[in-house]
Fold DUF3953 domain-containing protein.
Amino acid sequence: MLKILRYVFSVVGILFAVYGLITKNLEFQPYMMLFLGLMMLVMGLEEFQKERKAYGWLFFVVFLLSLFVSIKGFLLK
């Protein structure tokens, strides 16, 4: 289940990134950051399940950072 969520979040994030690169429209950049952050959260949960806590915490911190950036992006519109 986590693997499927990771793939879905990464594909959606990459689609937003490609759209922004092609059209030079940065309107959807906060959504891209949100989905890539959710992908990091899922990867962190996978690492916690594999008993690799250091990588799990690293992915969780990256998730929090990207969540903060995406919320700032939503508020500055």
Q: What stands out?
A: The chain has a mean pLDDT of 94. The chain is about 85% helix and 0% strand.
